[in-house]
Amino acid sequence: MLLGARLRCVQLLEKQAPDPAELSQALRRNREMELASEDCGQALLAHAHRLQMKAEDTVIADEKGTAKKRLGKSRVDVLEPAAEVLETVAPETGGCRPGLLERAQTRLEDAQLQSQKVGLRCRCGPVVKLLTADEGMSLADVRGLVARRFQRPEEGLVLTWIDGQSSMALSEEEQWQHALRVRRSGPIELEVPKPVRPASGSGVAAARRKRNKVTLAGLAASSGSRMGSGGSSDDVSSAAAAAKLQQQRFGRLPM
Questions:
Q1: Which residue range is the domain that position 210 belongs to?
Q2: DSSP string across 161-187
Q3: Do 172 and 210 sit in the same domain of this protein?
């Protein structure tokens, strides 16, 4: 686990703009595993600080109207990643400037409204990601957008709309349209189910059992063929010994 955490630091350091959610998870894991004092942990924290300062400058430049226009990018494209960094990464680095996160969220919502788009705040466990959808998007389109952002299969993905203290699973188009109609200021809050992981080693164990069964069957057939063609008892003994060894390797017989 420790080696994996160090490797993850290196992988994120190689990215100029790592995913904010992945970066915040790595920082949290480093703190829990006491990697902050190591070179890789310090380098990742410094990288996170640089990204945070860049996000802060982006919001301030938008407020002052001095933001540089980027080819092919709208205000939403520029402000959304900045707001996500301030929400997800800044808490792991000691926080951003007072009030700046709220200002970033306000600027992003303003840009979305001007572009006739809808903000989505999607949470999956501790992971939070900000998305922007077109106002005319159907539930299927939104599900696909969220699935791609979380790198999840779209099939079977059921989103849950969080409205204050109440929640509702979005399984029908009318439910999504209702969420659009009654939404207040701010993004629509969606909960993404955690991925279901298969039982550890279940596939490996099944493959081993299949290989063991085929091997033993082959040995039995081979020994029978030898006996039928006048094979010696030594051949049979060798086959039996090999079969016993196979069984011991896969835990079917005591050593």
A1: 202-249
A2: EEETTEEEEE-SHHHHHHHHHH--SSP
A3: no
- Shared domain for 189 and 233, answered yes or no, is no
Give me the tens of pLDDT residue by residue for the chain, a chain 255 residues long. Answer: 788 888 999 999 999 999 999 999 999 999 889 888 899 999 999 999 999 999 999 999 999 988 777 767 899 999 999 999 999 999 999 999 999 999 999 999 999 999 999 999 999 998 999 999 998 999 999 999 999 999 999 999 999 999 988 999 999 999 999 999 998 888 999 999 998 776 555 554 455 555 444 444 444 454 444 444 444 444 444 444 444 444 444 444 344
Residues 210 and 161 in one domain: no
Domain CATH code at residue 184 = 3.10.20.90
pTM: 0.73
Q: Which residue has the tokens 């008892």?
A: 233
**5 lies in the same domain as 90:** yes
Nearest to 111 by CA among 76, 161, 154: 76
Task: Give the residue among 248, 251, 242 at the shortest CA–CA distance from 223.
Answer: 242
Taken in order 185, 132, 125, 12, is the CA torsion positive or negative?
A: negative
| Coil, strand or helix at 121 | strand
**In whole angstroms, what separates CA 223 from the centre of its chain?**
51
Same domain, 144 and 120: yes
Burial class (CB in 10 A: 0-12, 13-18, 19+), 178: middle
Task: Report how many domains make up the chain.
Answer: 3
Residues 48 and 121 in one domain: no
Q: Tell me the angle at which helices 20-32 and 2-13 cross, rounded to the nearest 10 degrees.
A: 140
